[in-house]
């Protein structure tokens, strides 16, 4: 099958969408598909990558004439399906949707983010102005939590399927004994951006520490970097939280090594569409604490793979409970090590997208 992916952002940028799309393309090529990606991200030439780049401030991945360029590319390539990847607002990606509609090509749109009320309002306005639900799209979301607002806006004319993000499970499986929990090692991984509320994570850790008996030693490691780092460092200093380390960005191998000695993983962001770092922790055997309203709930069940909370206080209680209960930690860790999240494996993800491609192609031939 000839597949054209369209994404605002792509390598060499290293965000969640960029890495996930790159891994998907690699997996599809290994499965025998002919794959090309069109992107507005600047960078070196790579095989199968078409960079449609305009000179923009801060190298923003936007092209003012992107629709025309994409129509010409699609006409030349004639892919069997166009697969567009969007965040909350992705101008170039939606130019790809419009271009595929004009070119008469089957189109699948994957939404990698969670639509908040403002974003939902924007897409309702675009629906009224442009009528995109009538274009014969097939939409996918990375979790049930992310799919719900899309379905509410798109209506019954747009099928919205859930296809998980993918992970190479063999690369994250745990080896060796379950960590001893002395001290209890709490880990979080992610970009230190204000929208992720990283200072609130520090408040959560401090509140959980206060609920755990003093004789239980705790340390925490927060991996990542970003614009909120300064405010986090000031908070740690002001509250004398010297038991929390912030080593900066880690490679995937370093994260694997860290998870091998972690006792608890915390993913407290309230609007997490999926939570790839949490999936890596779960695959590595670490009990996960996360929001019940987030995409993490697709692969973490309360008491099975971790604990979920609907509020800040419930999250604090979950972290404190795991930190103070070695039997529960060990039980969840052993379950996670023995039971792989198969629906998040690349073979399952490729099968899910193949079904969506078939649905898009079938819908296009019927019109």
UniProtKB/TrEMBL annotation:
Keyword Transferase: yes
Keywords of the record: Glycosyltransferase, Transferase
The keyword Transferase appears for this protein: yes
Signal peptide range in chain numbering: none
Boundaries of every Glycosyl transferase family domain copy: 182-338
SUPFAM superfamilies: UDP-Glycosyltransferase/glycogen phosphorylase (SSF53756)
GO biological process assignments: carbohydrate derivative biosynthetic process
Pfam families documented for this protein: Glyco_transf_4, Glycos_transf_1
Residue ranges annotated for the Glycosyltransferase subfamily 4-like N-terminal domain, each copy included: 15-169
GO molecular function per UniProt: hexosyltransferase activity
Xref: Gene3D superfamilies: Glycogen Phosphorylase B
PANTHER family referenced in this protein's UniProt entry, alphabetically: SULFOQUINOVOSYL TRANSFERASE SQD2 (PTHR45947:SF3)
Name the record gives this protein: GDP-mannose-dependent alpha-(1-6)-phosphatidylinositol dimannoside mannosyltransferase
Organism: Acrocarpospora corrugata
